[in-house]
Amino acid sequence: MQHDILINWSPQETRVALVQNGALQEIHMERSLERGMVGNIYSGKVVRVLPGMQSAFIDIGMERSAFLHVADVFTGALPKHTDVNGQHAPVIPIEKQVFEGQSLMVQVIKDPIGSKGARLSTQISIAGRLLVFLPQDNHVGVSQKIPLEEREALRLRLVNLAHSEDEKGGFILRTNGEDASDAQLQEDIDYLRKTWAKVKTASLQMPPTSLLHQDLNLLQRVLRDMVDEFTQTIRIDSQEQHDMLHRFGLEFMPSAVVKLAHYKGERPIFDLFNIDEEIKQALGRKVMLKSGGYLIIDQTEAMTTVDVNTGGFVGARNFEDTVYKTNLEAAGAIARQLRLRNLGGVIVTDFIDMQTQEHQASVLAEFRKHLSRDKVKTTMSPFSALGLVELTRKRTRESLAQLLCEPCAHCQGRGIVNTARTTAYNILREILREARQFSPREFRVLAAPRVIDLLQDEESLHLAGLSEFIGKPISLQAEFGIGDEQFNIVLL
Q: What is the CATH number of the domain that holds 16?
């Protein structure tokens, strides 16, 4: 189906919305402070070799020198631990492979953490939309996550497309390239070869410690990964970023440039389709359906559960028709929420129970139709014996909730808190426990205003009885800004 892409850019954050028939389908975000270095390629300079640690420190122009271990030094197409007969061979010591003052092309494989510099490798790889390019190797492979019976046919296809008399280099087909056409694969091959040619040219012209290649930012990935024949327009609200993206597109994705436009409207670009409100709703548990039914979506560490409810929908002729129509609408809404929230892993959907096999088959077919529009690999099973539909969706990045939210400081992510009365009784028990160990002049309770009000009013008799029992006065002090579960008991 045809769609539009809206890009809202600011120096601190880039937001990309994919809109279909006026409804938000996907949201992608990137914050400038959170961009890592992994994938960046540098012209590094060896500043120190440590034979005892079998490693070297490399200056790549950062505040701290980066770290290169002997295991990450590329020595050729054969694995460095195996000889030509398949036997384990000794690793060539790092002092025989690099020397101080040497210039090396290196790639960051792990971001710096704390006082540790970035970790490097001399084996270069450049990721595309469907493929990974290995410029130093001629190996052509397929992701191990693709079923074994499909790998050889895919590998032969890729060999035929990637073979070139003039240009060397190997390729690995990524999982999301399993269903790609020859034209899509060829487009990715051309992009990766052009990128590598630019890296080689920069390595000859730029001095040591220079950045030769930076992994694509979100704006550039829009052209590489999101634009296809169904994309109508790509609108961006920054003239400067529009020009940058236009230059990038002319060089690598000329077919996408004609769809690129600078948005000059007075209203913020995301207001065109109420995007911010859609994002806010996508962070909630409850999703309303047009019919009056609703979904309840709960995301846990192990899985995501989706519960379908009829709610206020009573428009059908009988209850069975009401259930069927609610489930049909829910099938499309759930598929959209999976994309919008970027939910991955195991997802269990509890549709409303249907009595007929015909209705079940129809709902499953509708669900499959909507899931097929998802670019992320998704597999679905039929209804289980308990009436549940289980599916798996590949995790590609953080979910929307993980990206924008953090656990509540009051409930620690549980979504519920103790009642004021529960906290009041916890306080009374804690005072009794403290009185058995210590003998202060007075106990002072610091708690939320609701809890203090309860202790002064409905629970005042219990508080007075406890004070008499322990033989010490108990004073109360309301603390604003703390949760109903939190309290402190001060010994005076």
A: 3.30.420.60
